[in-house]
Amino acid sequence: MSTKITVIGAGSVGAAITNDIMVQGIASEVVLIDINKQKAVGEAMDIYQGAPFCSPAIIRSGDYEDAAGSQIVIITSGLPRKPGQTRLELAQANVNILKSITPQIVKYAPDAIYILVANPVDILTYVFTKISGIPENRILGSGTVLDTSRLQSELAKRFHISPKNVHAHVYGEHGDSSFVPWSLASIANNHIDDYQNNVADSVRIRWSKDDHQAVEDFVKQSGAQVIKNKGATFYAVAISVCHICKCILNGSGTALTVSTMMHGEYGVEDVCLSTLALVGSDGVHTKIISPLTPEETEKMQASAQKLKEIIDGLEI
User: How far apart are CA 147 and CA 194, in angstroms?
Assistant: First the structure.
């Protein structure tokens, strides 16, 4: 079965996603769309010329009408975050860009599943949900999927174990008000704070309960640190978005911390933020309501309130 994905935005993130889609053999056709058509042509040419070394795929630039028949549309268009700038400071400028894109793309790809990637991703996911007319289950933001990857990779180093054996997630905003529900975190089926007591070789493990905040701070600051050092982040986010695409296309139902519209879960309504949800061929199949502690529930509500304050100041 042929799979078509459209990527809107040919900047560093959009190009990296397109390249990873081809390298990983996720789609048989990728259409790259950008207001700078020359840039889209150049990126598509550069990526496609590596096609003989990958699974067969067509990579091409195009216009909105070329998105027709796409199973997935990925929206990366927006101004990038500058050093020292928060994701939320980008809000109105990137909302305006999204408002100009939305009617053009949904006209030609009304049945696609939409993945919002540009920042602030929770705000843009909310706006797209409100203005697009696309059913909510087919709209998701990349949310804290990347934050969760950063968390799991850091914990894997500290515990000297494969990241696949680390079950810990980042909830809330993709930003400063995110948090880790440590009550749910486990390493190889042991609670994270008990694991080292249950293995014979615990000498190499660098962990204590006091490390919770340090690890959360690392996760929150990682994006800004990369931007400070190299000017932009795109490799890790591209891999995380490709993982979301694979979870959609394989249809088996995978638990991911994507950003979706909340309807009273954890006492949060009318805002998009990240919780665990099952993602598959119909988009977001269902949310997974985890048993958070009262303190963790308060953090979720505080994160939602921060986003709502930004939304209230926007022209949507």
Answer: 23
Q: Whole-model pTM above 0.85? A: yes
Per annotation, catalytic residue among 174, 191, 263, 285: 174
Task: Report the alpha-carbon distance of residue 282 to residue 74 in Å, rounded.
Answer: 16
Residue 187 and residue 165 in contact, taking contact as beta carbons nearer than 8 Å: yes
Task: Report which of 265, 269, 276, 92 is spatially closest to residue 184, judged by C-alpha positions.
Answer: 276
Residue where the block lists tokens 């053009």: 104
CB 125 within 8 A of CB 270: no
User: How many residues make up the chain in this entry?
Assistant: 316
Task: Tell me how far apart the alpha carbons of residues 2 and 186 are, in angstroms, rounded to a whole number.
Answer: 38
Q: Are 55 and 16 in contact (CB under 8 A)?
A: no
Told to judge if 285 belongs to the known catalytic residues of this protein, a careful annotator would answer: no
Phi, psi of 198 (to 5 degrees): -115, 15
Q: What is the pLDDT of residues 180-193, one digit of tens each?
A: 999 999 999 999 99
Distances (CA, A) of 82 to 49, 150, 165, 316: 31, 20, 35, 23
